[in-house]
Input
Amino acid sequence: MTLTNTAIQNAKPTEKPYKLYDTDGLFMQVTPAGGKWWRFKYRFEGKEKLLSLGTYPDVSLKQARDKRDDARKLIANDQIDPSEKRQKIKAEKKLNSANSFELVAREWWSTHMKNKAETHKDKVIRRFELYLFPWIGNVPITDITAPQLLQVVKRIENLNKLETAHRALQTAGQVFRYAVQTGRAIRDITYGLKGALPATTTKHMAAFTDPKDIAELLRAIDGFNGTVTVQCALKC
Output
């Protein structure tokens, strides 16, 4: 006899948990606290196993049956234990979360920036937080592609911050190389992005070319009354 929505809704808690059976291994367990848990009982390689399918009403009767059918197909067609597959998916999600770009970047920052000046450290982490983490922070570092990273730094360039875009790409490359060194990435994808951003314009100080200006500079150096160290540096 199959379960009905009416039977499920009318099921009341008792002092001990009890089961309401559907078909093909699906049943509902009603707890003394009033919880209604979907379970799928099956056999795999000669062993009886249970798979949790969620709770009612979050998972309806139809949804529970669909989940049961999906699990049965895994067993029959692919010879895969649905419980082991679920555990594998959870483990992969946990691993990806531990290897997100933001977590790896913060680890790199704390390791490689600890001997740097506080102002420099603050600038680097602020650059991550403003321009990189909002877009790729939660992405597993192995899933980030070169075009995806380029899109992020191009967004910075479009803010008329070309030099910041170059610096962001440079520090992202350091994070990727750190990920390679620690076994969490295969390669540094920023190598393929060299030349992808326009070159920055370097401003040079004007040089003295007029002999009169040079003579005036030399007289100023001779008349400098600062420390001996600075005087020697000016005359070298």
User: Anything to note?
Assistant: The chain has three domains: 5-86, 100-193, 208-235.
